[in-house]
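Technical annex, item 7. During the second reporting period the consortium partners agreed on a shared format for inverse folding records so that results from different sites could be compared directly. Each record opens with the tokenized structure and is followed by the designed sequence. A conforming record, contributed by the partner at site C, is shown below for reference.
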């Protein structure tokens, strides 16, 4: 019976540079693409953000950052139209990173 050790027998002969390169390739494969929103979706997001700010409503939003999707939940503390960002739950998020908004 053959006792195969799998990758253990190969890692001893791999150079550290090769191991790093393989790890980078695996990370790049997990990267997600940012979806492209049309004008109607952008307008709907803006309306929900302003309605939540004016009425003091809690929202949940989905945003894109560093090749992945994240969610934030809370009340909007401010919207800066000039610099194009919002402050929510202690975070400052650019408008272009927001993908979807839900009002709770």
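Designed sequence (site C submission):
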């Amino acid at each position: 019976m053959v006792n195969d050790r799998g990758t253990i027998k190969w890692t001893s002969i791999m150079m550290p540079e090769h191991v790093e390169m393989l790890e980078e390739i695996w990370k790049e494969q997990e990267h997600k693409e940012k979806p492209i929103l049309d004008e109607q979706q952008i307008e709907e997001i803006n309306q929900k953000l302003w309605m939540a700010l004016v009425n003091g409503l809690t929202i949940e939003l989905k945003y894109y950052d560093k090749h992945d999707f994240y969610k934030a939940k809370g009340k909007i503390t401010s919207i800066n139209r000039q610099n194009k960002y919002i402050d929510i739950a202690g975070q400052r998020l650019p408008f272009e990173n927001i993908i979807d908004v839900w009002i709770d």
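Strands lie at 58-65, 68-80, 85-88, 91-94, 98-103. The mean pLDDT is 87. All partners now use this format for quarterly exchanges.
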